[in-house]
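Internal tracking record. Fields below are filled automatically when a chain is submitted to the structure queue. Please do not edit lines marked as system-generated. If the sequence contains nonstandard residues, flag them in the REMARKS field before resubmitting.
Queue: standard
Priority: normal
Entity type: single polypeptide chain
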Amino acid sequence: MQAEGIVRINADNNQEEHLRNQLNSGVVPDGVDIHCLAGHDYCCIVELPMGILDPISPEQVMQCQSEEDCTALCRLLPPTETALLDWAINLMADVVQHEHLNKMNSQNISMVFSPNVTRVC
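SYSTEM-GENERATED OUTPUT FOLLOWS
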């Protein structure tokens, strides 16, 4: 979480492919570059067949005006999307806690993740 530009800086494509192959075969490699590992986690969200918030209409999302509204709306999500959203929010919060080291504030992290939370345009 302390690496500068975590999630924002891309790792070498060959490294990412090698990591993916190892993880897909059940091997957790040692000494993986943190940007490679963070990139893998990010790709897992990007490669989802639909966005995490896609089960909710854009109109419903735009009507949220408070934390309570957002909480109520999230309760409408199916269990898988709820779990993914919870994981992504916790990951983003963890990254932002180390902003002084990684230079990833809430605006930076939201710019990285938000385009992939929904596929509805």
